[in-house]
Amino acid sequence: MRKYAITAAVLAGSLVLFVPLTVTALLGALETIGELFGLEPATGGAVTLLAVALGYVTAMEIARVRLHGFDELDRGSWPRRIARHAVLAAVSLAAGVVLADLLVEGVAVGIGNGQPVVAAGAAASLVALAWVTVRSLRAFRGGVRRPARPQ
Questions:
Q1: Residue 151 lies in a domain
Q2: Which of 14, 38, 100, 145 registers the highest number of CB atoms within 10 A of its CB?
């Protein structure tokens, strides 16, 4: 009975924590990229529904990893593994875009208001974000090249 309670708590926690964050990150990244290229933001019902679906997939994958470990990401056939990693990479990229946009705005506000401490803090955070991104991409590339576990 305790095993089922833990599983239910992990699933519920993943849904409550990660679906809204994923939807916000995806829609925010679409808006940021749209503004960057001068396009109208695509935030219609279908786009929102797709973001919710990706949020659900992300939450379920995070729950599986929390319950069974990182090897769960390598289950299934090669195309399914690639699709799983692509979804998680897209969500991570979207979160990075939103965070970078926020930090760039922080630098601009700091400089515009004559607050060098704010600008320096945001700039240092941008450098840290770039460092984490490079490290994550290297780890991702190394993980994809790893042979799949037998089924």
A1: no
A2: 14
Output phi, psi for 86, to 5 deg: -65, -40
- Is the residue at 42 inside a domain? yes
| pTM listed for this prediction | 0.78
Q: How far apart are CA 43 and CA 29, in angstroms?
A: 11
Q: Is residue 150 part of a domain?
A: no
In Å, how far are 3, 9, 29, 77 from 51, measured between CA atoms? 31, 23, 11, 24
In a domain, 117, yes or no: yes
> Helices 2-37 and 45-68: crossing angle, nearest 10°?
140
- Enclosing domain of residue 93: 2-145
Q: Show the low-confidence residues of the chain (pLDDT under 50).
A: none
Q: How far apart are CA 120 and CA 110, in angstroms?
A: 8
Domain count, the chain: 1
